[in-house]
Amino acid sequence: MNCPICNRPLKSKKSIERGIGPVCETKIAKLKDKENENQISFENELSEE
Ligand SMILES: [Zn+2]
To answer: Which of 3, 10, 34, 40 could form a disulfide with 15 if both were Cys (CB 3.0 to 4.6 A apart)?
Structure first.
């Protein structure tokens, strides 16, 4: 099984169970945080208008 983000083979059992490498998991977690922040600000903008 390979990491869907960087396409490298997943070596550790944890990575295989999660289906993603630890580095990319951290990256995605940060991206999701940003997305959530954007969504919140976007929703606030909508409600203000
Ligand atoms: Zn990866």
So the answer is: 10
